[in-house]
Amino acid sequence: MERYGYSQVQVTRLLNKSKSDVSRILGLERLSETAKEIVSTSKLPKEIQMEASREKDPEKQIEILQKATEEGKTVREIRHELKEEKAGKPGNGSSEQSSTKIVKNKARNTKTFRKWEWKSDDGICQISVRFGKKHSMIG
For residues 43 and 96, what is the distance between their CA atoms, to the nearest angstrom? Predict the structure, then answer.
């Protein structure tokens, strides 16, 4: 958007997407560096990625993405667990387990990236977001 001087409304018309869809895609910028690493190295449904980007806490973002990638949970299951946690009920997540995985990811990757891509399963649709600055894949 910055490179070509497009507004969000112009991008919605260009991509034939709703303003809220484009806003959610741009919201991925809010992901923590470690969460961006998980997103860039896995094939997660866009709904999971967007759900993680709604969380302000970086550890919660990572927890959501790991539940989807490692436990195979759906966005509906994850939302249900988040609702229970916010209501004060104990969740199934383990912060100790998440911390261990973050350390492993830190030691493994040192690349940077400027672009996020999503492709539909059938390959017909592809969305690319290029960030204005490089993002480290180190958590």
Answer: 25
